[in-house]
Structures are given as structure tokens and as C-alpha cells.
Amino acid sequence: MTDIQDTDPAEASAKAATLVESLPWLRRFRDQIVVIKYGGNAMVSEELQDAFAADIAYLNYVGAKPVVVHGGGPQISNMLDRLAIPSEFKGGYRVTSTEAISVVRMVLTGQINPQLVAKINAHGPLATGLSGEDAGLFGGRRRGVVIDGVEHDLGRVGDVAEVDPQPILDHLAAGRIPVVSSIAPDLDNPGHSLNVNADAAAAALAVALKATKLVVLTDVPGLYADWPNRESLVSHLTSTELRELMPRLESGMIPKMQACLDAVTGGVETAAIIDGRVPHSVLVEIFTTKGIGTEVVA
């Protein structure tokens, strides 16, 4: 019996062209550390979770060294609502009470982290879960936020003040994909934890690991120079240009762009914010010429 070929030659050629386009990027990122901050809308859709996990597994299989840092804003908000614990944001940061930090920790380290590890491990025994509290990975210090010149207290919220990259490097050397939840021990209050902004944590870790690239998933197509003007999407800018734009940005975008700025000024070659609502946006950003979203360079 003769097999009938049902492959469309044009479609096959298009697929081959995509693979060939990725060749220089495969070469560039082989054996290089790429830190990906995962969060927002990409977390709450099952389809997007699966696509993200496949992207991370793909990166590992083609020889890159992905490290995932995740937050969990939507899930934390849902759990706080269910438990009737008040929650508010100031300057793009969640105000975190002593009562709320236990919920934050439970959701990040006990719920989201193992779920994401399991999704990635559906593609092979690759991922391992970590908290910023494990093996001295992060050390945090409390911070406030300045709004209109006035300092506001954020409660149990901190910055990553110290990073020991060795636990991550050990996992990478063993061929594993570290998946890190953004909780840090309070250096000034032993035995207590801090809710650390995941964008900032990813940037600090990228710098400590001497990563080649930081990728931040968000829920918009990228940085708009003149929001809400949809025509003002910026595809590429320098750290100097970004500093000039920062005072005009929306509060929710400030931590993400500050993370990109901190990364490239700390030695990371490039940082990008991309739309996590687009399936496989991580692969499009890393392995295509045009990429997706907004890229920042020093």
C-alpha cells in the first residue's frame, strides 16, 4: 500500500525557515544562563502554563541554562480574599501584613512552585523547586515606597539585599532547571520572612549569576513611551533612555522596568519585558531576530 504524503511543502519550508532563523540564537545562548521571571496572566491560564513549561524545557534541551523566578500576584490576591485578609497596593507593591506574609509564603512556596515544577517535569526530570529562603539563596531587608515625595510603609515587604548564587549554580551544573519562589529571610529579623518583588528578585539573581539575559513576563505587549497611546510601543531602548522614561511610567510598570534597568547596569547583556499572554512568547523572544516586547541594553 502506498503512503500518501499529506505534508504541505510550503508549510514545511516555513517551519524549516523558522528553525534556521533560530540557529544564531541557539549558538549564542548555548551554555548561557537565562533568568526568566514568570508571573501575571501567564500563570492563571492552564494553556499558557503548559506553553511556558514547554518553553523552559525546550531551552534546557537545546543547551541553554534557564532559571525561573516566579511571583504569584493573582493567586495571592485570591487566597487573601478567601481568608478575608485585607490587601492593598502602594506604588506597585503589595502591602504585606504579618498575617498576610504567611499566606504569601504558603501560596508561593507551597502551591505555585510545585505546580510549575510538575508542569516542566512533564517534559522530563528537569526542574527542581527552591525558595529564596533555601540554602541562603536570598537575604532581604525591609523597604518602603515613596509616592509623591512621601515614604509609605509596606509591612513585611523587602528588597533582595544579598544573593548567594551557589545553590543555583550547583543545580545548573547537575543539569537541572531551578524554579525559585520570591520569598526571602529578613536579615535584620532572624526567623522572619519578607515578600520580595519577583521582578526585583529575578534581576538581582540574574546579576549574581552573570546571566546573559533577563526575561520578564507581564500582561501587556511591552513598554509604552506614551501610555495609553498604543502606537507608542518601544521595541528597543538603552538604560539611559529608560532612566529618562521612568518618572512617567505607570506604577505597575515601574518595578518591571526597574528590574530591567538593574539587570543591565549590573552586567546582564540584555533584559526584556514580554507579553506572557502570548503562547510561547519566551521562545519567540529568545530565538527569533525580531523578538517580542521591549528589550533593554546597557
Commentary on this structure:
It is an enzyme of class 2 (transferase). InterPro entries: AceGlu_kinase-like_sf, AcgluKinase_fam, ArgB, Asp/Glu/Uridylate_kinase, Glu/AcGlu_kinase, NAGK-C. Keywords: Amino-acid biosynthesis, Arginine biosynthesis, ATP-binding, Cytoplasm, Kinase, Nucleotide-binding, Transferase. It is found in: Cytoplasm. Its main location: cytoplasm. By secondary structure, the chain is an alpha/beta fold. The chain contains eleven helices and 16 strands. It has helices at residues 9-21, 23-29, 41-44, 46-61, 73-82, 98-121, 166-173, 198-208, 239-245, 254-265, 281-287; strands spanning 33-38, 65-70, 88-90, 93-95, 127-131, 138-147, 150-163, 177-181, 183-185, 193-196, 213-218, 223-224, 233-234, 236-238, 270-275, 294-297. The strands form four sheets. An eight-stranded mixed β-sheet has the order 5-8-2-1-11-15-16-14, with helices on both faces. A four-stranded mixed β-sheet has the order 6-7-10-9. Strands 3-4 form a two-stranded antiparallel ribbon. Strand 12 (223-224) and strand 13 (233-234) form a beta hairpin. Helix 4 crosses helix 6, helix 5 (73-82) packs across helix 6 (98-121) and helix 8 runs parallel beside helix 10.
Write the layout of secondary structure elements.
Blueprint: H1 9-21, H2 23-29, E1 33-38, H3 41-44, H4 46-61, E2 65-70, H5 73-82, E3 88-90, E4 93-95, H6 98-121, E5 127-131, E6 138-147, E7 150-163, H7 166-173, E8 177-181, E9 183-185, E10 193-196, H8 198-208, E11 213-218, E12 223-224, E13 233-234, E14 236-238, H9 239-245, H10 254-265, E15 270-275, H11 281-287, E16 294-297
Parallel strand pairs: 1-2, 1-11, 2-8, 5-8, 7-10, 11-15, 14-16
Antiparallel strand pairs: 3-4, 6-7, 9-10, 12-13, 15-16
Helix pairs in contact: 4-6, 5-6, 8-10
